[in-house]
Amino acid sequence: MSGCLSKGGKEPVEPPIFNCKWTPCKRKFTLKFLLEKHEILCPHNNLLQPTLSPAISPSSVTIPTSEFLSTPTSCTFAALTPPPTPDSTGSSSANITTGRKRKSDGSRVLLSTPKSTSSKPKVSCPKQCGKTFSRKSEATRHRKLCGLTDEEKKKAIKIRFGNDPTHVCCNCGEVFEQTNGKTAHEDRCALTVDEMKEKYKDDPGHFCCNCAQFFIDTSNRQQHERSCGVTKEEMMERFKDNVQHWCSKCDYFSVNVSNMSKHKAACNKTKEELMIEYRDDPKRWCSKCDYFSFDLTTLSRHEAACSKTKEELMIVYKDDPYHWCEQCGHLFFSDVRSQKLHKLRYHTHIDVRTITLQQMKVVHPLKHNNDGIGEEDPLDPLDKENFDFIVKKKLEWADTFAHNKADTNFVYRAACLSHSFSSSSTTYSDFVVGHPEEVGAYSGVKGKVEGLDIHNWHKYFPQKSKPGQAALRGQEIVFFGQTCFKGQDSATQARKQEALEINYGFYANKYKGEKMYYINVERELTNLSYNSDAAIMKMLSMAVRGEPSFCHKTECECPAYFHFELDKMKKVEFSSIDKTRIKKESPPRLPPQKARPQTEEDLKREIDRLFRSLKEEMRLNLETKFNVYSVLIVNKADFPGMSDPCEILVALRTRKGLVVWCYSGKGVEAADGNIHAHHQYGESTIMNELEKGDKIAIKIARMRCSCQRDAEEKEAFLQYTTGVSSRKKSHGIRIVPINIRMEWTAWLRLSDPIRKLAQECGELGTSLYSFADHPYAPLYQEGEFVYPIDVARQVEKGEVAIVKFVDC
């Protein structure tokens, strides 16, 4: 019974593996249709595809059963013609009219043309590429360029239409096959947005009838008007009985019917199921590689950038204004959507009276429209109706943005590989599985805007980041994956999980064994204390017993915190690091390690000891006093010969039009009365300002709070208020905040009256500091916390001091 299973035999669970037939290709697939698609595009396929000669008759072609059951390759049989269709009586009739049915109209019989429910037949590409068209002329036009690369297509179009001015852009000289494409491009290429508005100022088709927003494409204007000024809830109520706008499989709603059709086609289907369903649809597959996408727009973007580096894309799109931001020093975006979002966030004037819900979600209420910072007029409190409306609308904006930021958070995992890794001799998966002791793991928290990558600050400040420091040493950084947390409590849940993984690494590094080591330094004991005792005991047990926290077996039931897929690991690019700064150095040595307890009794004893010690550490950490502190930074050149902070503050009272900077932060109360010690060794915005030696940092206030959460809320209040007021015109000293990366979760914890007070103070242009000679009644006071900060009072208390760093 060779080749058959016995009756009691165990069926195999491993999927079949299909190898590419073209030597020396080593690609492997688990789905046969993927193999077939690959073999057609395989670079090692040097054979000519066989064609069927017209001389071969249909009867001489034998189709094996196995081939008949699988999906056949489409062929054109030139010698075959369909046989005539016989009528029901066995005779033919040339007088029968088809496609119409007879109906009686009293004295005569009429022929009516019914409405056809079937669409017109599609016209296929004459070159059999798989594409279809609604008209024969479109297929003929497509045939002339079918099979050519992008560069070849551009060259062919230039040869044919290069001398016709109706096909050539008057600004950049790009040649277009169709004149309407040239017209649409020329508007964007040759004209600015203001010039286009002027060109179409008398054409209502380019302006929203509700909010007067301008649109280059009139179809975008039509889509915008459907929901302009209307919330999603109102739209759902409007279309609650229209099945075209609701998915019957889930609760998804969409105003756009075409979007709903796309959603229904993919609803409740995995990517693998969609790949099988559309395996014969060339519109869903990249023509250059094996990439699949259900969304055609996503696939089009992929094909444009397929197999190209960022430098190559910059050359390809060097003349395309949709990939560059001229207002930010020619910043490049490989994705057009990223450029549009960037311009909306930082270079678009947002009118709070007509702001949309989507704009509230994605545009930062403190950092929008860079050109407007410091140029806005303070609101007039005497105009109560306008003042109250603006304050209410901007508070709604801030809360919507905060909820959107706090709604989704991730715990991401990455690793730095030792210098023994070489991409030319091994893969990420083989190295991680075969040499775990040469892999340094890292866990962190980020928001949803970062995508499948580590937090961006690692790339902005690599010298202060553990993964960044590894990259500077010439080590390769790999992204493992991430876990998503949703809901208003997602930030807390993500930080709890991050703290568990960091402390697992802290204890696991103490024991010997072939395992990943961990490079996180900050233990996050406050966030760890939010976990239950059972979760902390489990973490300690895993660390002491040597059970891994990361596992590459995706379907196992081990207690690992994260199961990652080996084939989805990807390199983390540190594009901001100059290659000349990279120096190959060995990573820091691990602390001395001890042998792991062997018996179960010894293991339990060690876990209990560590648990009691950790609980005591967390108790002491929770009793630690936290402060909110404020630092003023000035240019030395503005105060020549002055080094005493009180002398500088006295001189500030008489200065007009001077620009100074402020930093509002929180931290553990320092024994020496200074600001948080993390500025000495961690990521420090203040230290970055002082690196050149041309500025002085002065600690103005250090206000004690009841706990860490209270400090987070007070910090959020100061950051938001100073962020709003810095956008207003100043007739005296202009104070610019240098840290407005807010804790939006803490902002939402503030009460409604306190958030309203922060908005009102900011709209009035209230300064963070009061330099008045007479006592100043604070607008907000709670315990030691006061706002605004009375500088004269702080000088009398002896709180004012120069901020000093070891390296400065």
TrEMBL record:
Keyword Zinc among UniProt keywords: yes
Keyword Zinc-finger: yes
Protein name in the entry: Zinc finger protein 2
Domain C2H2-type: 123-154
Classification of source organism: Eukaryota, Metazoa, Ecdysozoa, Arthropoda, Hexapoda
Superkingdom of source: Eukaryota
Transmembrane regions: none
GO molecular function terms listed in the Swiss-Prot or TrEMBL record: zinc ion binding
Keywords, comma-separated and alphabetical: Metal-binding, Zinc, Zinc-finger
Bias type Low complexity, positions: 109-123
Stretches for region Disordered: 79-123, 582-601
